[in-house]
Specification:
The complex is a heterodimer of chains A (194) and B (158). Helices cover 70% and strands 0% of the residues of chain A. Chain A has 11 helices and no strands. The longest helix of chain A has 22 residues. Chain A is elongated and about 55 Å long. In chain A, 40% of the residues are buried. With 158 residues, chain B is α+β, with helices and mostly antiparallel strands. Helix content of chain B is 15%, strand content 38%. Chain B contains 2 helices and 11 strands, in the order H-H-E-E-E-E-E-E-E-E-E-E-E. In chain B, strands 4, 5, 8, 9, 10 and 11 form a 6-stranded antiparallel beta sheet that branches. Chain B has a 5-stranded antiparallel beta sheet with strand order 1-2-3-7-6. The N terminus of chain B is likely disordered. Classes of the chains: A mainly alpha (194), B alpha+beta (158). Chains A and B meet through helix 4, helix 5, helix 6, helix 8 and helix 10 of A and helix 1, helix 2, strand 8, strand 10 and strand 11 of B.
Chain lengths: 194, 158
Amino acid sequence: MKHRIAIQFIAALGLLALPLGHARAQDGRITARFAAPVATRVNALLDSAQRAGLPTEPIVLRALEGHAKGIAPDRIIVALGRLRGALQAARTALGPASSTVELTTAAAALQAGVAEHRLIQLHQIRGTQSVAAPLGAYLDLVARGAEPDRAWAHVANLARRRAGDAEFVRLMPRDVERTAVEPRTSNAAGTGTP
Amino acid sequence: MTDLDDDMHDDRLARAVGLLRASAPDISGLAERTGARRRRLARRNLLIGGGGGTAAALALALTFAGSGDGEKVTFALSALPGAHSVALVGDFTDWRTDRLKLTDDGEGNWRVTVKLPPGRYRFAYVVDGGEWRSDAAAAPVLDDFGRPTSVMTVGTEL
């Protein structure tokens, strides 16, 4: 009898915990701006990210960006799913101690085509220092027209010298024009992506 | 800084910043190193100029100046004589168009200065409530929806 009561008690606790657990991933900004069916889908994604130990704020902000730009909900959901996947891959590459800024920047790098092994390489070079500034600098350099391998070599060299964020933030393509390109490893050869 | 800058310090921004910082590893001495870096940056004034695309007459500039808990960033659009309003929207406004308005100097030069903590931010301008513009001074990237957008890194010690 006592055993049965205990099981019933645990089951009741579980039922209580389900909605409470789900509520943790709700975001008032999402429910305020999206129609209920869309908000439910977005919140489910947030819930999934939260359960995986990923930061939800980047996903919320991307949803708000899509809404502000008048993007169709289905396209927003697809983008959020991709971002969640990229955040997961970024955390795998950088480890569980990575900050939200690092994960967000690394996810952007992966979505831009940066190979995962390069994230790992940069993380190893930086040690306890964040990879956010060098990664952001690399992305900006390439977006501004710098040759990817040359840009990467320059950023990696600065990282090895333990440069501060300011040195990365102000990098411009002209700064990397004369940087010697690192020889590609067999892992990177032939990928065609930075 | 404009009166509208006060909006940046409301609960929503505090929450966003808190969440962005929440998972930062606890590194001994980081605060001291960050403070030292910020002091060194206090007089830094990085100006990125230029225009492009359909905005041949448009000059955009981002000016950074470090101080306190973050950097003051001046967003500016010049030679925009026909505009009635320009809003700055981005991750730091929860992508609301009513939070940060640029002010006109009367000659079509619009600007606003906001203080941002270290981070990497996506942002855009909305002219007259409906025309979205990226910032030609920032690195040109496409957003997840295939549209031009702007991304900016604010140091230091992310």
